[in-house]
Amino acid sequence: MSTLTATPGQTIGPFFHYALPFDGDRELVAPGTPGAVLLHGTVTDGAGAPLQDALVEIWQADPAGVVPQRTGSMRRDGHTFTGFGRSSTDITGRYTFTTLEPGSVDGGLPFFGVTVFARGLLNRLFTRAYLPLDGAEPDALLTSVGDRAGTLVVERDEHGLRFDVRLQGEGETVFLTYPGHS
Amino acid sequence: MTPQPETQAVIDAEIAATAHAYEQAGVEETQPRVDYAPYRSSLLRHPTKDPHHADPEGIELWAPCFGERDIDPLEADLTIQRGGEPQGEKMLVTGRVVDGDGRPVRRQLVEIWQANAGGRYIHKRDQHPAPLDPSFTGVGRCLTDDDGTYSFTTIKPGPYPWRNHLNAWRPAHIHFSLFGTDFTQRMITQMYFPGDPLFALDPIYQSIVDPKARERLVSTYDHDLSVPEVLMGYRWDIVLTGSHRTPLEEEDHQ
Ligand SMILES: [Fe+2]
Fold this sequence. Notes:
The complex is a heterodimer.
Chain A: E1 37-44, E2 54-59, E3 84-88, E4 94-99, E5 111-118, E6 125-130, H1 140-144, E7 155-156, E8 160-162, E9 165-166, E10 176-177
Parallel strand pairs in A: 1-8, 1-9
Antiparallel strand pairs in A: 1-4, 2-3, 2-5, 5-6, 7-8
Chain B: H1 8-25, E1 52-53, E2 90-98, E3 109-114, E4 139-143, E5 149-155, E6 160-162, E7 168-170, E8 173-178, E9 187-192, H2 203-206, H3 211-215, E10 220-221, E11 232-235, E12 238-239, H4 247-252
The complex binds fe (ii) ion.
């Protein structure tokens, strides 16, 4: 049980691009690595317009379902899988990651933890990008969100794995709150 | 015909109406509202549905690790990155990052970015005609120490104009990006300076509708941190949300 009140968040604002991106931020593995897959998508607003100033982060297990606890995300050495990636959106609202598909952690369905920041978005948003279920039973969370569950599952396309983020309106992504958030 | 930009008075009235409704409701809020119309850019960018409750599991119970390999200790000093001394009021900002139980968040990444003393960012989209400072990038990173303490040497940023409405100015602030020990603690926020006359006028600051909660973003001037004839000291502590990992899970993964 938390005893202290959390510091409030604020928008990332429009001017983060010279501060937060870093070389290799979106390449959790080098392109061409065996098993490498492109995770990509577009962040759109309530009018369907792409966000050119959003930042998407992912945090994931490795293919064996091991939670990485290794340093080096900001100075990638080409072989250490750290599980963390960061991608600002481009002029078309698109983000991309070159990564490996996460495995199941402790028997759960495999998913990428996703955080979204943007100018105009006053606090960060959390969501999950599940790998395609491929016949697996939905878990408790997917079941509990009902007919919006599709917004939490990536689609396989010709580029790899597609996960669009809709901040508002039709097809609005399910965003998550965890115990202790208010 | 382009519409006339709205005046500060229009924004003020909306801020006041929301503040009044909040007081009447009598339910404490501690985070900003994402649906806060006085900040016009939020209109199409806030989710309209309530966030869905999830119990953190698997990867969400852990956070990325950063270390000496990621950060050069010199990145914590924003006044030495370009050789010359930047213009403005040199300052130290330091504080502790703790979780909701007051435990220090150790050896974790803190990133900051800010405008220069004239209120100008290096960013190419910054239209403010104030001069760039060739000796200042406004970007810093550090790792917290074993007590959760971070520390940056920098210069005090200036307020800057923006286009939310006519004559809109942001109070001086430093952007902070923080990680905890759980993925669920990830946050980005802004630190402000005591007594800023722009607080009441700023829809981003006022999007935190609770006055006590807003004040959590305001640093305090700490004379004991000031260094004679060198710099002024500010203190700002950060509390992340609670950690969800149990001691048992800690052991399992050791
Ligand atoms: Fe700013």
